[in-house]
Amino acid sequence: MAVSKEELYQKMSDAIVDMDEDLVAELSNEAVAQGLDAFEAIDKGLTPGMERAGQLFEEEEYFVPELLMCADAMNVGIDILKPHIKSDDTKVKRKAIIGVIEGDTHDIGKNLVKLMLETGGFDVIDVGRDIPAAEFVEKAKSEGAELICISTLMTTTMDAMADVITILEEQGIRDKFKVVVGGGPISQGFATKIGADGYSRNAAEAVRLAHKLFEE
Hints:
- The structure is a single chain.
- A 5-stranded parallel β-sheet has the order 2-1-3-4-5, sandwiched between helices.
- The protein is an alpha/beta fold.
- The N and C termini lie far apart (45 Å).
- The chain is built from 9 helices and 5 strands; from the N terminus they run ααααβαβαβαβαβα.
- It is globular, with a radius of gyration of 18 Å.
- Helix content is 56%, strand content 13%.
């Protein structure tokens, strides 16, 4: 007897926390076989598992090797589900720049947001990690991007996020870009303070926020 989709998503989430690639693959294939929405399966099955793994990492119950094994398990599921995501190819894709600000090399969260933005219909250019503020701006200009996504997991690098917005203002091009920030120490209050267009708590929320910003 087939389990409900809620149970299936919970099992997917648990399998990622348990670093069980084979089970993630089996459950992801089951989601496809049941005809479930692939984006929803990533959003409600895989993503919560990775977020729980990130929480365990912050609580020092998991360390880098465990976190990477969780990410590997998640990627197995994504590889199975991604080809089944319904995309609206009639729309011109908006271009986004995404990266981790200078001074930080934590990029698992950034990679998750990148993937979710791509599945949400954005053309995403990943500039990488430990990226200076000026480089975000130059890349956004040269690529013709409309959205700049900046992440960090460290409080010591937060001020550099504000520098991106300062540079845009100094060059008189602030209105050409939507700037979104996120990561462990970031809050809506911080985003508002530095003049960002938005803040997202997780990858799925980042996609909803991005769409909302361009609907306004």
